[in-house]
Amino acid sequence: MCLAIPMQIESIDGFTARCQAKGVWRDVSLFMMQDTLPVVGDFVMVHVGYAIQKIAESDARTTWELLDQILEESGA
């Protein structure tokens, strides 16, 4: 199973974006999105260090809520 996490882009330097999700920061490659590069403030789905698609802020927040619920119910 593959899992991508929504993150918000805080800064961009070339094809590397500094992204954050719920207080966790990561450097993310934008290489796979060369045709439609995101901009600072956009939300992207991140899979193994690569941004793979842009998503709406509402979708990112809904996903974070669902992931929190799963973690809570699993006792993690």
Describe this structure in words.
With 76 residues, the protein is an alpha+beta fold. Helices cover 24% and strands 42% of the residues. The chain has one helix and five strands, in the order E-E-E-E-E-H. The protein has one helix at residues 57-74, and strands at 5-13, 16-21, 24-29, 43-47, 50-55. The longest helix is centred in the C-terminal third of the chain and has 18 residues, at 57-74.
Task: Fill in the keyword field for this structure.
76 residues, alpha+beta, 5-stranded antiparallel sheet, 1 helix, elongated
- Helices and strands, in order, run as EEEEEH
User: What portion of residues belong to β-strands?
Assistant: 35-45%
Percent helix among the residues? 10-25%
Nearest-angstrom radius of gyration?
A: 13 Å
Shape: elongated
